[in-house]
Amino acid sequence: MHVPRPQRPIGSSPQVHRPRAVVAIAGVVAVTAVLSACGTADDSTTPDVPTVTPATAPAALPGPAAQPAGLVVPTAPESRAMVVGDGTVAVLDAAGTSVLRYTTADPGAEPQVSETPELTQIVSADDGEFVGVGPGSVARIGRDGTVETAALDVDDPTALARTASGDLLVGTADGRVLVVDDELAGSDDELVPGQVIDGFVRVDDITVSPPDADLPEEQVVVLDRAQSSVTPVTVSDGDLGPALRAGNGATNAAVDRFGRVLVANTRDDEIVGFFGSPLVMRFRYPVPGGPYAVDYDDERNLMWVSTTANNEVVAYDLSGGEPVEKRRVPTVAQPDSIAVDDASGTLYVLSERGGLQVIGVGG
Predict the structure, then answer these.
(1) Which SUPFAM superfamilies does the entry link to (predicted)?
(2) Along the 363 residues of the chain, how does pLDDT read in single tens digits?
(3) What would the DSSP string read from start to end of 198-233?
(4) What are phi and psi of 113, to 5 degrees?
(5) Under 8 Å between Cβ of 170 and 200
(6) Which end of the chain is less packed: N or C, by CB atoms within 10 Å?
(7) Helix (H) or strand (E) holding 180
(8) Which is nearest to 210 in space by CA: 148, 150, 298?
(9) Which sign, positive or negative, has the C-alpha torsion 272, 23, 121, 290?
């Protein structure tokens, strides 16, 4: 379905939206927590709110994993990101300057390599393309491996998502979301954000509901590890909804075809589910072992979660509202990134220590 691209006045300055007060509500129940630090009011764009120490992935035992299932393709350690789109698995290398493209039909084959400016995040785009962002630039990697770049005034991008209309949502370490048109005219092009939305301590993940979600309109949700919160954002006017607590150590999030936002609360060993407009908490479910990466198989209605402390991925059925475990699979060591190919049900797991694991539907 074609969604018209919003028109912006030529030469207009980006709109900057100031924060509302943060409301620490999870669903209909207020959550009270003892927090470790407070934000500072020295920076006018950073809210003065209670914060937590941002959670990270629990470390697996030293050395390689015992017996990872499926196929394991060698990759360099400390790869930065992985995403699946249109028959291709894209892996961003440790330096952020090479995108390795593996075909889902033959992931063991030699990957196509595209050289890029330094990137920190990457997402899939239309027609088998990928878009990445890094300090000072945005890059589009075409299906044939060609790279287009454009300048963007951003120092430390920490999250990236794409709306149905094609806008890029770039999250930053200093708590802003830049709304950017992803049409790149060439290497001399400079992208100017149509909007700059602040009000966060940091932006660590951004989810965008799919067009057919059970919601009245597209819903964008920002995850802030420093507040362990999720906040709905109206991109058209920059309005922030209430910030909902997601335990004491939220790290990563995914959105399913219904529009449910699934959050890994790593510090508390649980998955937290949010849904609705307004957004409310729907469930909290224990997942031992340090849940970290999360993705959803829209065709088979399975939520996949990696647990980095014990080198496993676990699949849960959410059809009844509460997670029900369906599969548990051993992985490569330190499974910090996962991505599902909805077409085949294949799960891809990227090890922080090196190795791309391919887990088919049957094993």
Answers:
(1) Calcium-dependent phosphotriesterase (SSF63829)
(2) 333 333 333 233 344 444 444 444 333 333 333 333 333 334 446 788 899 999 999 999 888 788 999 999 999 999 999 999 999 999 999 999 999 999 999 999 999 999 999 999 999 998 899 999 999 999 999 999 999 999 999 999 999 999 999 999 999 999 999 999 877 655 567 899 999 999 999 999 999 999 999 999 999 999 999 999 999 999 989 999 999 999 999 999 999 999 999 999 999 999 999 999 999 999 999 999 999 999 999 999 999 999 999 999 999 999 998 999 999 999 999 999 999 999 999 999 999 999 999 999 876
(3) ---S---EEEE--TTSSSSS--EEEEETTTTEEEEE
(4) -115, 130
(5) no
(6) N
(7) strand 177-181
(8) 298
(9) negative
Q: Is 106 exposed, middle or buried (0-12, 13-18, 19+ CB in 10 A)?
A: exposed
Phi-psi region of 120 (alpha: psi -120 to 50; beta: other; left: phi over 0): alpha
- Two tokens, residue 344: 């085949």
**C-beta of residue 121 within 8 angstroms of C-beta of residue 139:** no
Q: What angle do CA 275, 281, 285 make, to 5 degrees?
A: 110
Q: Which two tokens stand for residue 57?
A: 């992935």
Q: How many CB atoms lie within 10 A of CB 169?
A: 24
* φ, ψ dihedrals at 303, nearest 5°: -95, 125
238: left (phi over 0), alpha (psi -120 to 50) or beta: left
Length of the chain: 363
The structure tokens listed for 204 are 């660590």
The model carries a pTM of 0.87
